[in-house]
Design goal:
With 267 residues, the protein is mostly helical. The radius of gyration is 23 Å and the shape is globular. It has two domains: 42 residues; 216 residues, no CATH class. The protein is 85% helix and 0% strand.
Length: 267
């Protein structure tokens, strides 16, 4: 082997070594994640003992997230109306803007953007809470007291996410449509009557149901991944910060992928 060939060989060896380690870590993490989910499902009856935790998490995840969801949804509707009227202004009837806003908001924009926003807010909060409990040995104390930490800490958060995300999306849909109506009227000069007519002509019940189905999956993904990341934290406060960052990145990517899968299967 010549001196020129040796660095190339070392480079490829290092590359495949990192690739192999990354693959092993990925499947190891995936296996641990599904083992927690399996334990949660098998012992779901234990969650009845901690039903108070479910309601507490519903307040934390749902009620505390309403302001940011409504703010984002309102401006999403306004931007969609303004952009639609700007791009299609010269060759469409005024009623089409209402139809475009309604379809875009119900099918895609509100569920997806709500999930991405809550991936940062809810996901990071859950990971930080559980991660702090892990590094301060509170979870170990629960196990020592014969509590099931998965049923006590993870199951209530996942159930609350599955229940509250669809409700947040419904509120977001309403505010986004109202925001779109305001934007179309104030900026594009489209009357409310024309907007509502287009909305009525294009509305289908399945559009709203599909957005709610998305919210159920997104709520599960965000809360379950956040719980897993927090539950397995190691390394003190630095580990909590790293796990929180991983939660935001992983859940955001998982939400986008799931959005594509659901659209491909159900539409």
């Amino acid at each position: 082997m010549t001196d020129k060939e040796q660095p190339k060989t070392l480079y490829f060896t290092h590359f495949f070594s990192l690739l192999g380690k990354g693959t092993v870590y990925f499947f190891e993490d995936l296996g641990k994640y599904f083992s927690i989910i399996w334990w949660m499902l098998v012992n779901s009856r234990n969650a009845k003992e901690y039903s108070r935790n479910i309601f507490q998490q519903m307040v934390t995840i749902g009620n505390n997230s309403i302001p940011i969801v409504l703010f984002v949804s309102t401006f999403v509707g306004m931007v969609t109306a303004v952009q639609s009227s700007y791009q299609l202004y010269d060759w469409i009837p005024r009623t089409v803007v209402g139809a475009l806003v309604t379809k875009s908001v119900l099918l895609e924009l509100t569920p997806l953007l709500t999930a991405l926003v809550l991936a940062g807010k809810v996901g990071a909060t859950i990971t930080a809470e559980l991660g702090t409990m892990r590094v301060t040995e509170q979870i170990d104390a629960l196990e020592a007291l014969a509590f099931d930490p998965i049923s006590f800490l993870i199951t209530p958060r996942v159930i609350a996410g599955i229940l509250m995300f669809p409700i947040l999306v419904v509120f977001g849909d309403l505010l986004a449509i109202l925001g779109g109506m305001f934007g179309a009227s104030a900026i594009a000069g489209i009357s409310n009557d024309a907007f509502i007519e287009g909305m009525k002509n294009s509305f289908e019940t399945w559009d709203a149901v599909f957005g709610i189905i998305k919210a159920v999956f997104f709520g599960y993904i965000i809360t379950s991944v956040a719980c897993y990341q927090g539950f397995k934290v190691q390394g003190g406060s630095e580990g909590v910060g790293k796990a929180t960052m991983n939660t935001v990145v992983i859940t955001s990517l998982a939400v986008v992928v799931m959005d594509f899968i659901l659209a491909s299967v159900l539409l």
